[in-house]
Design goal:
By secondary structure, the protein is an alpha/beta fold. It is built from 16 helices and 16 strands. About 35% of the residues lie in helices and about 20% in strands.
Length: about 475
């Protein structure tokens, strides 16, 4: 694969990285050299994601496949010298998608549509349900519908998501999936279908979790592929007064309580009295893809960075890798880890869970309270094409403990322009990962984690 422009620019820098950082400390120089080496030749992250997607494949949270994923990750960490590798079990409520997912317009324009169940959906039963579809352009339009107006009907919810570098349109369009089915059920809907929360035009529905308010009985809920959703909307435009009738078959099941677990491993630091640096990801994926970009590659990135830092010499602080076992269906792993370790302070938390396209922006929540460290990190990653962001870092889904402890957080923002073409679809596969951009991720992570792991002072931001 041809090297992208940002990578070629980084390769061509003539000045030693340590000199660019303006530091003399030997650990900084070694870390910078390790980061530069990762940009050119790191294979650790690829080795992880290639291995887990090939040997395990999809890893639905709480299932036997996810357990195999945890076992595989533990073997990988142990084989590469991580210490204190463990699987920390917890209990979770487990939903699985079932085997039959069908949608069919019965009239006035009979034809099949491509659909997948949303996480948390109830079953229609094997015979399915049939009802008139009511079109809502937005979730706010659904909220405005009169109480009881959807009784016996199927709600269809659209949105207008577009690709963005920062992924911000996920927050704009996401409520159609996150809360749409619950709102529709409150208003009496028999079931809900949504336009997939994604930016591609493939007939690949995007799944993902949906929720129902306390006291509201879950109803069947599915996502149509974007082309099928657009087709349905065209039907509404030309049907006139004729109702659109849809037959829906979804057969998910709740397995009840099952065991999941968080995989942890450490690069042990020289001073065990200092709080560790926590780097996180999640092992589980949805059933319909192999979990390459979400989030096998994130686990590869954080583990590779920790190993690269160790190659530069034993760090001052311990680097703890957290591979949460179950994120997609309710942040089970993140919550369990925080509950189990809340009394063990961490110095700073970082997560990789947005694919593997290049990192373009660095953010922290200590820009003002620890300006010297923030600026030092910002300077260190300029050579990789990473800007100094002004936003306050809030962290990802798998580092609840950092928020619960009100401690330091860093966000290494990845380019999300094409992420939501692949997110939660069958297209989440290894071939979608650009090895050059993946190496840039590992290089940036190595640089940032190396600085943090060798920082003797307090990283924690002021309240």
């Amino acid at each position: 694969m041809k090297k992208t422009l940002f990578a070629l620019a980084a390769f061509s820098l003539p000045v030693a990285a340590s000199a660019q950082l303006g530091v003399d400390d030997s650990s900084d120089q070694r870390v910078a050299a390790a980061a530069d080496a990762a940009l050119e030749q790191d294979v650790l992250a690829w080795d992880f994601v290639e291995g887990i997607t090939t040997e395990v494949g999809p890893r639905q949270a709480g299932t036997e496949a996810e357990a195999r994923g945890r076992a595989w990750a533990m073997r990988w960490l142990k084989a590469r010298g991580f210490a204190n590798v463990a699987d920390e079990p917890y209990q979770m409520q487990t939903w699985v998608p079932g085997d039959v997912h069908k949608a069919e317009v019965v009239g006035p324009f009979p034809q099949p549509l491509v659909v997948q169940p949303l996480g948390g959906s109830a079953s229609t039963g094997p015979d399915g349900i049939t009802g008139e579809v009511v079109f809502f352009r937005t979730v706010d339009d659904l909220r405005a519908a009169p109480e009881g107006s959807l009784k016996g009907k199927i709600a269809y919810i659209s949105h207008a998501m577009t690709p963005t570098q920062d992924g911000s349109h996920y927050g704009f369009a996401g409520p159609a999936r996150w809360v749409g089915a619950g709102i529709a059920a409150q208003k009496g809907a028999l079931a809900t279908v949504i336009k997939s929360v994604g930016t591609d035009l493939h007939r690949n529905p995007h799944t993902g979790g949906t929720g129902f308010p306390a006291g509201v009985q879950p109803t069947p809920a599915g996502a149509l592929s974007v082309p099928d959703a657009l087709n349905l909307e065209r039907m509404f435009a030309r049907a006139g007064d004729r109702p659109i009738i849809l037959k829906l078959i979804l057969t998910p099941r709740n397995l009840g309580t099952t065991t999941s677990g968080n995989v942890v491993g450490e690069i042990v630091g020289r001073d065990p009295s200092l709080p560790p640096v926590l780097v996180a990801c999640h092992i589980d994926s949805w059933w319909n893809g192999t979990g390459a970009i979400d989030d096998g590659v994130g686990c590869g990135i954080v583990a590779a960075a920790a190993l690269n830092v160790s190659k530069a010499g034993q760090p001052l602080r311990t680097i703890r890798v957290l591979m949460a076992g179950a994120e997609e269906t309710g942040l089970w792993g993140s919550k369990a880890y925080s509950a189990a370790h809340i009394g063990e302070p961490i110095a700073v938390g970082l997560e990789s869970d947005f694919g593997a396209d290049r990192i373009w922006k660095f953010e922290s929540n200590f820009r003002e309270s620890n300006a010297a460290l923030h600026n030092r990190i910002a300077r260190s990653v300029v050579r990789f094409g990473v800007s100094n962001g002004m936003a306050v870092a809030t962290g990802g889904a798998d580092i609840n403990i950092a928020r619960d402890q009100d401690t330091a957080i860093i966000d290494l923002q990845q380019d999300g322009t094409r992420y939501f073409d692949l997110h939660h679809t069958p297209d989440d596969t290894l071939d979608k990962i650009d090895p050059v951009q993946l190496r840039q991720n590992v290089a940036v992570w190595t640089q940032v984690v190396g600085i943090l792991a060798n920082e003797p002072g307090e990283i924690r931001p002021k309240p």
